[in-house]
């Protein structure tokens, strides 16, 4: 059964999905820094017969701004290859006729330009960072508690992330805060939501078993992908911690030092 | 069994414990306002043969400042009769040799004057209101995540409270946020912690069945007291909502319009 495990499964793969922060680059001051070997690894994947998509829970900037940053770092990447929670949220809002109160980073607001935000009947929170003030959280809370059927969307459910100057609280923490305040359950848009992974697979025209997810977040990247029927490989960069390799509920199909090693192993299997 | 229920149980009572905000007064701009009949009701209890204590989860001011406000509103009350979470927390910190990082309202800080706060090995959060900024919450998070055995104390676990200008998020919401961020369970000091109620009973020298709690918060006042073996009566003032009277898990021993009515019913039973 070597072919069904890692890296044997690479023989029958048709596509690869890459997480971005912690796999391609480390965030921080300015544009952050590319992780050694990652720029070349993306080039090799693009030169191969594999389909490639990028899948991020980044919600501090529009996809356009975000992709421009990656391009400045040296990555061969375009907006149409990138899946992020905000455009997925916009689709859900329109489909369900919902008008959001936004608690998101200023840089993300243009993603919601096409959405009616008057007289809000739901709340959308993203990684708002400094905008998670008491006043702003209280405002979002008052919108929710004033609704007959409060609906809260959270763009991801991360606990925290690492920037070059230290750990930062992520959106999931504020999702839990509002869930408790209003006694409700948020709808998560982004990883690890199965709907989100499925939208990437649909775009590639692939079945789950034909795709592999590579990420640094064991639960949201690897576990989320596995939950959808994909393989999931974890890199030992970004937010990886050694204790991930003995996690009680999620076991990666493979663990590699970094994206460069993962890509070399995949391509070696296919030659 | 009329004597074991409400108000029959009042015949055998030896003491009464009163919640403060929402029972004695409504908070808001300045000192807030006394709830009609409450000043007189406290006087009647003090003139009776019943022991009386006050029990609050107020953590925005020292007990001294808080009691002075109540006295200005017209209440006959002294500091030694009031039980609040901060002094209880100080006792726990000293007993366990813990040095807190404080995320509390400025007005509460003097309560912790006698505690060593250098090189913190735990975090204490209270109702910090505007001080619950992203930066301050992140700072508390970094202290916790940097500890080998992170310990978080929460002064209460309320979801929100009502001020004259609207609903405000309470400390419990930020407790849940930090619990999720650090994957831990906070220790709650204050109502509805059984330890907290027991410390009031100890001070009165009473057994639980000899005391009655009167509060506006069904879960934290009434449910918490009942959990300790006391009777619990809810007033229809403060944060009372009609749906409290059909709550899935907590049923008050009695529900009354306000403190004045509760006290009249108690004293009538005893004549």
TrEMBL record, chains A, B:
SUPFAM superfamilies: HAD-like. The keyword Metal-binding applies. It is found in: Cytoplasm; Nucleus. It holds the Pfam family Hydrolase_6. Transmembrane segments: none annotated. Its main location: cytoplasm. PANTHER family: 4-NITROPHENYLPHOSPHATASE-RELATED (PTHR19288), PHOSPHOLYSINE PHOSPHOHISTIDINE INORGANIC PYROPHOSPHATE PHOSPHATASE (PTHR19288:SF44). Phosphatase that hydrolyzes imidodiphosphate, 3-phosphohistidine and 6-phospholysine. Has broad substrate specificity and can also hydrolyze inorganic diphosphate, but with lower efficiency. This is Phospholysine phosphohistidine inorganic pyrophosphate phosphatase. It comes from Dicentrarchus labrax. The lineage of its organism: Eukaryota, Metazoa, Chordata, Craniata, Vertebrata.
């Amino acid at each position: 059964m070597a072919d069904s495990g890692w890296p044997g499964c690479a023989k029958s793969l048709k596509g690869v999905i890459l997480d971005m922060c912690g796999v391609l680059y480390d965030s921080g001051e300015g544009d952050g820094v590319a992780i050694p070997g990652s720029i070349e690894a993306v080039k090799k994947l693009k030169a191969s017969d594999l389909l490639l998509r990028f899948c991020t829970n980044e919600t501090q900037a529009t996809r356009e701004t975000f992709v421009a940053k990656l391009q400045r770092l040296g990555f061969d990447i375009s907006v149409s290859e990138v899946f992020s929670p905000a455009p997925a949220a916009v689709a859900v809002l329109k489909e369900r006729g919902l008008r959001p109160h936004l608690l998101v980073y200023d840089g993300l607001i243009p993603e919601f330009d096409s959405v009616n935000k008057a007289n809000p009947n739901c709340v959308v929170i993203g990684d708002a960072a400094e905008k998670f003030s008491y006043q702003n959280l209280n405002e979002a809370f008052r919108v929710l508690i004033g609704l007959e059927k409060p609906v809260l969307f959270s763009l991801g459910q991360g606990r925290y992330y690492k920037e070059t100057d230290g750990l930062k609280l992520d959106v999931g923490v504020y999702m839990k805060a509002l869930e408790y305040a209003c006694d409700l359950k948020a709808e998560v848009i982004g990883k690890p939501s199965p709907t989100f992974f499925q939208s990437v697979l649909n775009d590639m025209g692939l079945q789950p078993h034909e795709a592999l997810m590579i990420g640094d977040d064991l639960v949201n990247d690897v576990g989320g992908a596995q939950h959808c029927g994909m393989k999931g490989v974890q890199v030992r960069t970004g937010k990886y911690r050694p204790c991930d390799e003995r996690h009680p509920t999620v076991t990666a199909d493979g663990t590699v030092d970094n994206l460069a090693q993962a890509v070399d192993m995949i391509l070696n299997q296919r030659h």
